[in-house]
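Subject: sequence -> structure tokens, single chain

Hey, anyone have a minute? Need the predicted structure for the following. Not urgent.
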Amino acid sequence: MSERSELTAFALELADAADRISMRHFRKAPRVDRKPDRTFVTQADTAIELELRERIAKRYPTHGVLAEEYGDRTANQESRWIIDPIDGTHNYMRGAPVFATLIALERAGVMELGVISAPAMRERWHAVRGGGAWSGNRRLQVSAVSDLQDAQVFYASRSAFVAVGKERGFDAVTGAAWRDRGFGDFWGYALVAEGAGEAMFEPELYSWDLAAPLIVVEEAGGRLTDFAGRRTYEGGNALATNGLLHAAILEKLNKP
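Reply:
Had a minute. Here:
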């Protein structure tokens, strides 16, 4: 087995471990704490992150980890795992099944692989650099829609755009699209990769929100950038598209 195959298999093992923990606590009134930034964290978030950190340290002791709950412990390692233990914590807290663990591996500044695992939805998407994006044995491919009037676009919430003064751009995109739906968090990116929609856009994100979706979207033939058109997973804002509509949507998102 090649090193890349071993790393991919390990990433899927991490996702399996995360799924077991998240489903063990799901809809069972998990303990919830509020962090200093006033976002929420459940006992499942912390349990998943600690479990994955322990597994990584045991299997790959030279690898670093950047994750949501306990921060960046990379010490300048060349290989770094980027993890969101539960993307969609608010959904998880309320018993809604739209949540996932996001796992990505960066090596020497290049995203090598990503996994999006949504156990309550019985869905998992993964991608390996140069190896395509997959849902099980089904290879993913973005859509061929090239006119915004025919496009289905996704976002988290309009209020998030209002909070950062981007509501005019939001309204310009949703007003021009055929349909718009608030499938926020990881799911919008996965739907773009599947070809079930043409764009997903959000105004405020962190690296752990973007790393896995980036490679899944790109390996499905799509594109993910910030609102300035820069390819990045360092946080900020993000637009993922099928590529054909990227320039047109960027122009509308940046409407003054």
